Amino acid sequence: MNVWHPLPGRPLSELDRKIMELERRGRKVPSRALLKTPEQIEGIRRSGAVNTGVLDLIEREIRPGMSTAEIDRMAYDYTVAHGAVPAPLHYEGFPKSVCTSIDEVVCHGIPDEREILREGDIINVDVSTILDGYYSDASRMFLIGEVTPEKRRLVEVARQCLEIGIEAARPFGFVGDIGHAIQRHAEKNGYSVVRELCGHGVGLAFHEEPDVEHFGRRGTGMLLVPGMVFTIEPMINMGRRDIFIDEADGWIVLTDDGLPSAQWEHTLVMTESGPEILTR
Prior knowledge:
Blueprint: H1 14-24, H2 38-61, H3 68-81, E1 85-86, E2 99-102, E3 105-107, E4 122-131, E5 134-143, H4 149-168, H5 175-188, E6 192-193, E7 199-201, E8 208-212, E9 229-232, E10 235-237, E11 243-245, E12 253-255, E13 261-263, E14 266-271, E15 274-277
Antiparallel strand pairs: 1-4, 2-4, 3-12, 4-5, 6-10, 7-8, 9-14, 10-13, 11-12, 14-15
Helix pairs in contact: 2-3, 4-5
């Protein structure tokens, strides 16, 4: 059964022909529903502006001695003051508005009054926003005071992995091109890539197709077509790539060897000339 369907009552476009030929050759192609309209992209862009405002606020205020619950309150207050809703709040039972993941916590850290930022910590704050029904998603790493050179280097290489992944995403390339570039850079620097968690389509829902894995081979995965909106969010471990989920809460993901992990994330729209970041 074909995934790509031309618009009824209209002649085949060059885009239709190109995608249908690739699908005929066995390539994985998006459905037309995954391509956002210009109006939808503008809605996601507006959501992304609020999302960026949250992260900018946290960047100004984050400091040693602050609890992660305080970060959560800042994010919630800013989001609702701008007419939006924190997407993680109550999502599949998640209890807070953002994820705060310190050192060996890979992702989905739950803000807590008892969790106090200390000099030398590295923390990922993952923010997702719903504005007028449109979703955006981004995260940043923050260095708390003076951190070790080893942690600083991990954070920097993780940031480079995001940038390299964005550069590898090209119109009519493939999702696997992104993962290949990220994996190569991480492993070249002596780090590993978490494989159980990935980027994803986003915009009209929190998680859409395609899955955007941060490892893999060039020329594999779904075709990248202008109009697709998705995240790239590599999770890079200092040690082994193995992870586990804390059974006590069912959310917090940690490195199996207890070594730190780092992650950066953006929401992007694919255009005819390449990806545009919607969460700057």
